Amino acid sequence: MAGTRALLMLENFVDGKFLPCDSYLDSYDPSTGEVYCRVPDSGKAEVAAAVAAARAAFPGWSARSPQERSQVLLRLADLLEQSLEEFAVAESRDQGKTITLARTLDIPRSVQNFRFFASSILHHTSECTQMDHAGCLHYTVREPVGIAGLISPWNLPLYLLTWKIAPAIAAGNTVIAKPSELTSVTAWMLCQLLQKAGVPPGVVNIVFGTGPRVGEALVSHPEVPVISFTGSQPTAERITQLSAPHCKKLSLELGGKNPAIIFEDANLEECVPTTVRSSFANQGEICLCTSRIFVQKSIYSEFLKKFVEATRMWKVGSPTDPSASMGALISKAHLEKVRRYVKIARAEGARVLCGEGVDRLSLPPGNRAGYFMLPTVITDIKDESRCMKEEIFGPVTCVVPFDSEEEVVKRANSVQYGLAATVWSSNVGRVHRVAKKLQSGLVWTNCWLIRELNLPFGGMKSSGVGREGAKDSYEFFTESKTITIKH
Ligand SMILES: NC(=O)c1ccc[n+]([C@@H]2O[C@H](COP(=O)([O-])OP(=O)(O)OC[C@H]3O[C@@H](n4cnc5c(N)ncnc54)[C@H](O)[C@@H]3O)[C@@H](O)[C@H]2O)c1
Ligand SMILES: N/C(=C\C=C\C=O)C(=O)O
């Protein structure tokens, strides 16, 4: 129940205007378990209105020069940066993450997304070849695709939404974005900045609501030729089915079951704290989080001891507590799902070394109905176990020993996913060799989550289709045309 405090009421943003909706969904504060906000439960009608607005805005926006569009993106970045604290507080409340993380990662990166694509759009070149024997010159031009549908998840709400909006509009498209119904607030706050930044009405439209209703209406709409999706593999399958009759262009950024491979010559001083962070940052709710840690046998006991000690130092607490490293998980249902995985591991004979069911969670009274869980380390677990195969997307990581380089590469590659891996060794030859053999779109060696936005981001196998980044996002959000001039 809502209690006595007024609820935050969100509205769709279409054609530069905030519009109420016929029905609304409750949105929970994960750190208290209370409803604090109501989100439009949009459907086909709202998508149709957004398509009409995006269609009308397209000719004007796509005709602007990249320099003009770049200026608008830069103003948006500045406005967002000026409101950084307000956005960080809102993101933390809506998602459950700590304010510290929202303040240092989510919102700064959202600002950077606009600045980065404002700059990169100015530097693309096209191809040209000559065919002297035929008296011909050939060259390519790139044009925006049209209306882009952008669907994003709840774990890094504004970070991942702006990672799509910025390249799409920089390239001259108009967009209809659908954030996760669980975390809609910062997207709605962003709408308030669009007009101030000079984004013309209809260029960015945001429709809120659930996947099956508004998400499917967007994906199925014949006038939306391009869909950029970040989320889970089952949803990607559904989106692929719905897009197929229209031959839509699809970008799919999906889940992971990311290995960390720790060799005996790793610098444990750096490896242990970074692997704790790569396992549990954002409550383990990052598609790039480590969830299978392979440690070479000779250092296995030493690593395990240090890793468990360092994990126990991670404080779970109110997202507003500056000393907390982890906040609340996104929802009650998700918390239950993550806990179930720990139960399954136990039933399969694995050992839980710390966290769920072993240590006591201590929370302030106001947070006791929130969706909290301790960071949990599991060992003595088989590679075939569900916790070693399936994406848990929570604060649970498994540690297992290995003998040889060849063996660990094979085991690391033995899952359906291929998103991100980390490799820890001071042998540079080994680092290159192993990185090359891993079936993974991203390999971080002796570090984690250092992002270079110019370069391709994305996964192999069930972790996705396509890549995002300066060149990749530009190519995705534009169509190429080859022109031949006979002279
Ligand atoms: N590879 C990446 O960059 C990346 C980044 C973040 C999250 N993820 C993945 O996302 C998943 C967690 O996010 P989630 O639970 O929000 O995923 P999800 O697939 O349930 O939802 C993602 C988005 O899709 C929408 N959606 C759901 N069903 C839909 C449908 N039938 N048609 C259209 N849209 C629909 C949701 O409303 C939401 O906006 C994890 O698997 C995680 O690994 C991947
Ligand atoms: N897309 C990116 C990160 C995705 C994280 C998933 O949870 C990025 O850093 O660009």
Uncertain residue ranges: none
Number of helices: 15
Beta-strand proportion: 15-25%
The portion of residues assigned to helices is: 25-40%
β-strand number: 23
The gyration radius over C-alpha positions equals 23 Å
Shape: globular
- Secondary structure category: alpha/beta
Q: Characterize the main sheet.
A: 7 strands, mixed
Give the overall pLDDT as a whole number: 97
Q: Can you list the strand order of the major beta sheet?
A: 15-16-17-14-13-19-20
N-to-C terminal Cα separation, in Å?
74 Å
Bound molecules: nicotinamide-adenine-dinucleotide, ligand LXW5BMXJ
Subcellular location: Cytoplasm
Active site: 253
Family: Belongs to the aldehyde dehydrogenase family.
EC number: 1.2.1.32
Task: Give an overview of the whole structure.
The chain is α/β, with parallel strands linked by helices. The chain is 39% helix and 22% strand. It is built from 15 helices and 23 strands. It starts with 7 loop residues before the first strand and ends with a strand. 52% of the residues are buried. The model has no long low-confidence stretch (mean pLDDT 97). Keywords: Cytoplasm, NAD, Oxidoreductase. Residues 24-483 form the Aldehyde dehydrogenase domain.
Fold topology:
Layout: E1 8-9, E2 12-14, E3 17-19, E4 24-29, E5 34-40, H1 44-63, H2 66-82, H3 84-95, H4 99-120, E6 128-131, E7 136-144, E8 147-151, H5 157-170, E9 174-178, H6 185-197, E10 204-206, H7 211-220, E11 226-230, H8 233-243, E12 249-253, E13 258-262, H9 268-280, E14 290-296, H10 300-312, H11 332-347, E15 351-354, E16 376-379, H12 386-389, E17 396-402, H13 405-412, E18 417-418, E19 420-424, H14 428-437, E20 442-445, E21 460-461, E22 464-465, H15 470-476, E23 478-486
Parallel strand pairs: 1-5, 8-9, 8-11, 9-10, 11-12, 13-14, 13-19, 14-17, 16-17, 19-20
Antiparallel strand pairs: 2-3, 4-5, 6-7, 7-23, 12-22, 15-16, 18-21
Helix pairs in contact: 2-4, 2-6, 3-4, 4-5, 9-10
Bound molecules: nicotinamide-adenine-dinucleotide (NAD) and the ligand N/C(=C\C=C\C=O)C(=O)O.
